[in-house]
What does this fold into?
Amino acid sequence: MTTVGLKGKITKLLKSKGICVCVTKAGNYHEVNKEILRQISKNKTIYVSLNKSCENVVKDLKKDKISDKNFLFIDAKGKNYKEGNFISIADPCALTQMSIAITTAANTGGFGSLFLDTLNTLLIYNDMKTSEKFTQYILNKLKSLNMDAVVMSIEEDKAKEIIALIAQISDELVSI
It folds into this structure.
């Protein structure tokens, strides 16, 4: 897929509003992720990073010339930050702590969307049932607050079951 085609698909996806599940092939993941972040960086967004430290996320954003000023980062890699727009979570298994952090931030009314990176990482650290319950709770909470969300997933067999469940409560399911 060309960069222009990718940008157009993502623009269309983000204009649809609501809860969007974005499934992509592993080979497209970084480009898709980068383009989504480029477009949502204009809005106040809660960024939940499960697969790498927010320190590395911010480095990647800067490298790609994407501003991080509108993001509140929830880092589930256990890194402690002394300053900045970061909330540290012990690890990707600490779903109660993560849920409280997301809910507290969402309830402030200061954010219009959430970006969850990725369902696959959630499934590495948690069993299917727990991952489903957590994701369902968070997405329903966001819906009740009229917030948008983009939930990223890499196309793989292990994630099919949770994607099918989340698709039922999502407004859009897109394969890019």
